[in-house]
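DATA SHEET
Item: assembly model
Revision: 1
Owner: S.N.
Input lines:
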Amino acid sequence: MKPKRTIRRGLVFTMDFIASLFFFLVIILTLLWVWGETHRRISEYQEVSARHRRLLDVSTILVKTPGNPPDWHMHAVDPETVKALGLAREGNVLDDEKLETLEGADYMSLQEILGFGNENFTITVSDNITGSPSVLYSKGTGNTAKERLVVRRLALLNGTPVELKVEAYYNKK
Amino acid sequence: MKGRGFVLTMDSMVALVMATVFIVAILHFASTPTIQADDYMFSFAGDVLAVADKDGSILHALSGDSTSIGELMDSASENMCLNLTVTDSLDKRVYTRSTGCGEPARYVTAKRTIVNNTSDYTAELRVWLR
């Protein structure tokens, strides 16, 4: 008569298995963190890049074109009638009459025409471009937003080189 | 006899090296986000050339007075370097001016044709970040 066989099963946690499990988890968790961080940075980069691109486009329209219609400064500045806001008589030559109208225009209307949405902005024209600049024309006010993007452009105003600075303010999400 | 061992096999070593390389590479790229300033530099270079053309700074420089072109170039941000080269219609270099930075690895170039009564010139402005 054969003796009864008893089957015993065991689970062995060897040292190398535990060590490899530890390394594996560390690597997986690190990769997850890197993935999330990279995703966050790429989104942030795209957002800032798009804002920068838009600010540059706005500054180009201001400094290179007379706007649409070209005589927008002769009428009330209204988003219904002004399609694009340009400050130039010709490329890189600013029109002082348009700058005066810009200073007196309604801020919210300008915000809409320039495409800033709910972001605040300032537009400043100053001379003495190499030394301490003195402001000739200014529109908009600085605010408490944490982030700021600035674009500086050069142009002529009444034969003198001036700097047109466009600043946009926003808060990071 | 109580013997304990730790085995580092070849495949685990290879896997560990590859994982480390991947992590370091991802961390490196993730930690160096740069806003591409090429568009901005190109616009600024175009502005400098347009203003220098319209107020006569380049022609003044060709006749020996570099004051106004110097002021225009010096108006750039401190981290921006500029190098202006003017060539005549025979492609001969007639004027150069630099803001005093070293040679760049990567730069943006804007060009503009300057028309004079007697001849025409090509102004080339290279801009790069310090």
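QC remark: Residues 113 and 122 of chain B are 5 Å apart (CA to CA).
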